[in-house]
Specification:
The protein is of the alpha/beta class. The protein contains 9 helices and 6 strands. A hairpin with a 6-residue loop joins strand 2 and strand 3.
Length: 243
């Protein structure tokens, strides 16, 4: 009889009752939406202190394939990039991005060569809209020989709306990574991490002069890198220009 009782108890423990069909039951998503619904400013600071994330607003994420196109001129995606770019066999294939300062009010455009890891920086102290980014990038590209102006890979940010005008200064064009695919510009992401040692987040980047940017370029370009067999980016870049 004891065995039967144990079996009955075991069956009772293993059984999972079906949730009651209660029209007043709510999912966690419904509760979150109700909490965050309100004024444009979201939850008060007093309430956000009690949340793990501390976010005053909660927005629904869009799927990458449902994002509206940012460019008027047709853009070339990374899948159409020459295969030699992926192999890092030549100097002149660049990856680019923006690093922004406090309140997103100042920025620096960053360019890094995929093979040599050679860095160029573009100051954007006042604006970093499409026109400012276009003018800054073209100025830097014109400062380099045509031999090392082959391709540029960027993310699909609105600052590249004039990508077709920038592409005129590159022999093989401008290409765009897939949305949310940071690894497709991994060299640039790594470089931006190094640059944050000199240009910390949440600081005013407009205080850095062109001379400051050249000094940081010099530091990174003359630093021996393990990934380059302890050679410097400047060594590899200059060697390519000498060929």
């Amino acid at each position: 009889m004891g065995t039967d009782s144990a079996c009955a108890d075991g069956e009772a423990l293993q059984a999972r009752p079906e949730p009651p069909s209660d029209p007043e039951r709510f999912s966690h998503e419904t509760i979150y939406r109700a909490l965050y619904q309100g004024g444009k400013s979201g939850l008060s600071r007093k309430l956000t202190r009690r949340l793990r994330t501390g976010r005053p607003l909660r927005t629904r994420r869009r799927r990458s394939n449902r994002r509206s196109p940012r460019f008027i001129a047709p853009a070339l995606l990374i899948g159409g990039r020459p295969s030699v770019v992926e192999q890092r066999r030549r100097v002149g294939d660049w990856e680019g991005d923006l690093i922004t300062g406090r309140l997103n009010q100042s920025a620096i455009a960053t360019l890094v060569d995929r093979k040599s890891r050679y860095v160029r920086l573009v100051a954007l102290p006042i604006r970093h809209d499409a026109q400012a980014v276009r003018d800054g990038l073209i100025a830097v590209l014109l400062d380099m020989p045509q031999a090392v102006r082959l391709t540029l890979t960027w993310d699909q940010g609105a600052e590249m709306a004039h990508h077709d005008q920038i592409a005129a200064y590159l022999s093989e064009g401008v290409f765009f990574a897939q949305p949310g695919s940071l690894w497709q510009r991994g060299t640039n992401e790594n470089t931006n991490g190094l640059l944050r040692q000199y240009f910390p987040k949440r600081t005013d980047l407009s205080v850095h002069t062109a001379a400051d940017l050249r000094a940081v370029e010099e530091r990174l370009n003359t630093r021996p890198r393990k990934t380059l067999g302890w050679r410097t980016p400047a060594d590899i870049f200059d060697q390519a220009l000498a060929l």
